[in-house]
Design brief:
Immunoglobulin-like, 3 domains, six-stranded mixed β-sheet, six-stranded antiparallel β-sheet, 27 strands, rod-shaped
């Protein structure tokens, strides 16, 4: 054998021995690393399972059963069961994982829509270092069977809370929400009574309702004017605005419509509690007095026609037999009386030349005139539906004023 062949054989043997040595050391290092740093699957356990396609409020229940772990290694599969309220979404995916995706991977992956309602699907979590052992969960998503067209649509409560409305001293709730006979275009009418001086244009309602969503509009117009209502939204209830709320079902194929009217309990306030007719001069015969005393409309809605007295009660007279000599008492305006505008009290009387009493001289004849504010003689032009709602709810406090006439008395 030549020297060249011997050298080649020697080099080949050295290379084989080096490869065998390196392989043994590498295998020993891998085994040692696995013994010193085993995979801990507890780091990859799922304690929540968030779906990408739905909000949390759609999730009615979630139950997670963890697999049995022995020394951090799973012995069986875990189970995840999620129940959703009705939705027409047909495919779902996992939104996020709690573990480091460098150390573990999951299949199906985040965002892959492989979850179908009513069908089990296995999610497999695989470590990056040791792929022959995995952590698995059987995932089942169920959706409640429900027809949106049968969804109940209703406002249960309407409030102005002091915490959201700094101008109010206390919480205000609607006494009742009703559908009245005068206007069938609404599923219900809500009347809110606020204190005198409240800014009608800046109120934030709290609404409790049954349904999937709620929208509103404050001005007349088409359905496109409706906007999404969110808690804390301030609305303008000041006339001529009229707030309309709609409760929608889940797929918005159906809705219930409510209107909201806001006013004060005592919209009409007189300049004084007593009024003297004829500037205090004695009264006799038939006469009319057009501006005995003024009043202010502090209500949200305008007064566009006369308000007639609803009751008159004689409180002071020199005669033994009580007689009422006031023919009519009316609240009037030159035109429409809007919020914070003035009106006047008008009265017709027919007193005898002198009243028969126990003495001769001048005395005061007095009556109390009461106005129910809303009665059949009072209407709001072009807004009769508002009047009828207010009348139906009977919300206003009757107002009273004392009318005084100076009359001449003669003894019998």
């Amino acid at each position: 054998m030549t020297m060249i062949k011997k050298n080649a054989l020697f080099i080949t043997l050295l290379m084989i021995l080096n490869f065998l040595y390196t392989s043994c050391n590498s295998s020993d290092d891998t085994v040692a690393d696995e013994l010193e740093n085993p995979v801990n699957f507890e780091e990859a356990q799922l304690f929540d399972f968030i779906l990408s396609e739905v909000d949390e409020d759609l999730v009615e229940s979630i139950v997670i059963k963890q697999p049995t772990m022995v020394n951090g290694v799973p012995e069986n599969k875990g189970e995840i069961k999620i129940e959703l309220a009705y939705t027409d979404i047909s495919k779902f995916s996992l939104k996020q994982v709690p573990f480091n995706t460098v150390d573990f991977s999951i299949s199906p992956d985040i965002g892959e829509q492989h979850i179908l309602p009513g069908k089990n699907i296995t999610f497999t979590i695989t470590p990056s270092k040791k792929t022959e052992v995995t952590l698995q969960y059987n995932v089942l998503v169920t959706v409640k069977r429900f027809n949106p067209e049968n969804e109940k649509l209703k406002i249960n409560a309407f409030q102005f809370l002091n915490a959201q409305n700094p101008g109010l001293d206390e919480d205000i709730s609607s006494s009742e929400i009703r559908k009245h006979i005068f206007d069938s275009s609404y599923d219900g009418t809500i009347v809110m009574i606020v204190p005198n001086g409240t800014d009608f244009s800046n109120l934030a309602p709290k609404i409790t309702y049954e349904g999937s969503s709620i929208t509103y509009k404050t001005k007349a117009g088409s359905a496109e004017n409706f906007k999404e209502f969110t808690p804390g939204t301030f609305l303008d209830f000041k006339y001529p605005n009229q707030v309309i709320m709609r409760i929608h079902n889940r797929n918005r194929s159906e809705f219930a419509t409510y209107r909201v009217l806001v006013d004060v309990k005592t919209p009409i306030v007189f300049d004084d509690v007593t009024a003297i007719i004829n500037d205090g001069n004695t009264v006799s015969g038939f006469d009319a007095y057009d501006n005995i005393i003024g009043f202010t409309n502090y209500g949200n809605y305008p007064i566009t026609s006369d308000i007639f007295v609803s009751d008159m009660n004689v409180t002071n007279t020199p005669e033994e037999v009580i007689k009422n000599y006031f023919i009519s008492v009316i609240l009037k305006g030159d035109d429409i009386i809007y919020t914070n505008e003035k009106g006047r009290l008008y009265a017709q009387v027919n007193f005898p030349g002198n009243l028969i009493g126990t003495f001769t001289g001048i005395t005061s004849y007095k009556i109390d005139a009461t106005f129910s504010i809303i009665n059949r003689n009072f209407s709001i032009k072009k807004r009769t539906n508002v009047l009828n709602a207010m009348q139906d709810f009977d919300i206003y406090t009757p107002i009273k004023i004392e009318l005084q006439a100076n009359v001449f008395v003669s003894a019998p």
